[in-house]
Amino acid sequence: MSISIGSAGRSGGPRSLLRGLAKEAEGKAFDGQVVGRLLTYLRPHWTKMVAAFLLMLVVTGSTLGIPLLLKVAIDSYIASQDLRGLSQISVIMAVAFLTLFGAASGQRYLLSWVGQRVLATLRSQLMRHLQVLSLGYHSRHIVGVTISRVIGDVAVINELLSQGLITLVGDLLVLIGIITVMLVLSPSLALLTFSTIPLMLVATYFFSRRAKVAFRQTRQSVAGIVGTLAEHLAGMRVIQAFAQEEAMRERFDDANQENRNAYVAAMSLSFVFLPTVEFLAVLATAIVLWFGGRAVAQGALEIGVLVAFLAYVTRFFQPIQELSQLYTTMQSAMAGGERVLELLDARPEVADPPDGKEMPTIEGRIELRGVHFSYGSDDPVLHDVDLVIEAGQTVALVGPTGAGKSTIANLVARFYDVSSGEVLIDGIDVRTVMQQSLRRQTGIVSQEPFLFAGTVLDNIRFGLPDIEATSVEEAARQANAHEFILELPNGYETEILEGGANLSMGQRQLICIARAVLADPKILILDEATSSVDTATEALIQEALDRLLSNRTAIVIAHRLSTIRKADLICAMQEGRIVSRGVHDELLEEGGVYATLYKRQFVEQQ
Ligand SMILES: Nc1ncnc2c1ncn2[C@@H]1O[C@H](COP(=O)(O)OP(=O)(O)O)[C@@H](O)[C@H]1O
Ligand SMILES: [Mg+2]
User: Fold this and answer.
1) Which of 93, 185, 301, 398 has the lowest tally of Cβ within 10 angstroms?
2) How far away, in angstroms, is 347 Cα from ligand 2 center?
3) Do domains 5-19+30-345 and 353-441+524-606 have the same CATH topology?
4) Topology (CATH level 3) of domain 452-520
5) Is residue 592 over pLDDT 70?
6) Does domain 5-19+30-345 have CATH number 1.20.1290.10?
7) How far apart are the CA of 598 and the centre of ligand 2, in A?
């Protein structure tokens, strides 16, 4: 019974979520293309797999051989009272048992060894791939869903690759072997035993059809739980603020209950199926005993053959049972495999140039030339934007929410590529250089400061681990963060919780600014860096910004007048266009968007 959280993982937002479900609804248990590609993960471990395969043959051989030894012991030695022969065959039998157990353990060890390595390889490959995928991909995909791909789907695949394939072959061999040996030992008794097979097939067919539906429902309901939980955790603040715990808990409970019901339904099926199989095994045993016993009594059958038959009959149904379970494993593995491969196949929209050219050290002149842009296939967000920012200048972008300010920042840092037009830095089209070589020279401080779990020190020198503490401190001083850091329980060594939870928004922002100061980029983008902090912190940030902006090119997206006023150029944006540009007084006089915004904010800030 293999139910894995992983099957919940389908990414790609609601639309591809549906596509994923549809795929699973088809419930392919074997997809040559998927299996073929997954098998490549076994290639580096082929020696171990071959060894496991050989051990499986040994297990199969001993499983088939032991009842035969029993037959020989009874018919050849017990019957003729050959005690020496009997003790010999007893020793052989003990050895056969030891071999069986040894080989089975060895096989299991090898398979889990390989399985865990494949698992780890796949996971780190996925992680690396997720890092390559552009922000565009990540903004379209639900985090929880991606996580379940990396954790859960990968686990089902592992189950198939390591255990599944060998089990499949082993079970088939045992089945064929038992049928053959039975037919050789006593064709008539064998055929009588096989009379239960049609019943078995009917039961299996009946079960697997229902199981297919039941297990699919279980997997889908797990997806519901993961989704609700992820959203719940991410939005805990809002949930608590709006006192919506009750309502959210109900939503979770619904998903939870659905999963419980689906699981119980699936399990009940196997609780019916497994006794059915056992019943059939007992029935077959009874048939063998009845007819075999009579044949022995009439002297038509050796008693050893009867004993061997009884041993085979009990083993006969085990592979059938395992194979029917493997069927459900294979279904989830196919669906999971397809999703994992789909993720691995996703190409980053923003790709490095093939020639791998590095961006030389820049002066910092930015130029947007006839830039049009849309996120995905949606409506265009930027229309024909032209903008020149000379090296060292500060340009302020202002405009209502949704005007496209952050989008311009995204294009300059090349988190996205323009739909048409060009973004040039020092005259070089950003698409012609390696992303990292560009981003190393640009810095962004955004509205939502992000901190990693670790010390304050490590967060400031993020990405520059070799930098000395004194430089970090200097950067913090410049960012006006030094004072507050010293007041933290352990100063620079204070552990920050995941996401910066134990610091105020303003403190997080100051640390992010210190991080940017330390990285010392030629181009700095501040995207509403002061919009979510208190006035006292803002004054600190403002003061730091003056230091930070001197000597580099800056794009400042701000709603604070003081920042905007000091800019060399102000661009007022509306609906994806730069509608007017100039310095503060010019724009006020002009009386357009800027004047409106200014008046509103000016009144607000009084
Ligand atoms: N990742 C995204 N995917 C799709 N649309 C987006 C994305 N980010 C922003 N948009 C859309 O682009 C437009 C401009 O957004 P943005 O540049 O963030 O505006 P601003 O920063 O000026 O408030 C908005 O209409 C917004 O809905
Ligand atoms: Mg924005």
Assistant:
1) 93
2) 26
3) no
4) Rossmann fold (3.40.50)
5) yes
6) no
7) 18
**Do residues 508 and 540 make contact, with C-beta atoms less than 8 angstroms apart?**
no
- Beta-carbon-side half-sphere exposure of residue 14 (alpha carbons within 13 Å): 0
**What ligand 1 atom has the least distance to the C-alpha of 410?**
17
15: pLDDT confidence band, cut at 50, 70 and 90?
very low
Q: Is 105 in the pocket of ligand 1 (CB under 6 A)?
A: no
Residue-wise pLDDT for 469-512, tens only, equals 888 999 999 888 898 899 999 999 999 988 788 888 888 888 99
333 in Cβ contact with 96 (< 8 Å): no
Q: How confident is the model at residue 559 (pLDDT cuts 50, 70, 90)?
A: low
Options 1.10.1520.10, 3.40.50.300, 3.40.710.10, 2.40.400.10; CATH for 353-441+524-606 is: 3.40.50.300
- Both ends of the chain: CA-CA distance in Å? 67
Residue showing tokens 């996971």 = 123
Where do the domains of the chain lie? 5-19+30-345, 353-441+524-606, 452-520
Which of 401, 406, 446 has most ligand 1 atoms within 8 Å of CB, for mutation? 406
410 lines ligand 1 (CB under 6 A): no
Ligand whose nearest atom lies closest to the CA of 529: 2
pLDDT at position 238: 87
Report yes or no: 472 and 518 within 8 Å, Cβ to Cβ: yes
Helix (H) or strand (E) holding 544: helix 535-549
8 A C-beta contact, residue 332 and residue 219: yes
Ligand 1 site, residue 44, Cβ cutoff 6 A: no
Taking CA atoms only, the protein residue closest to ligand 1 atom 3 is 375
Q: Mean pLDDT of all residues in the chain?
A: 85
Scan for tokens 């797990």, then name that residue. Answer: 222
Q: Which band of pLDDT confidence, cut at 50, 70 and 90, is reported for residue 8?
A: very low
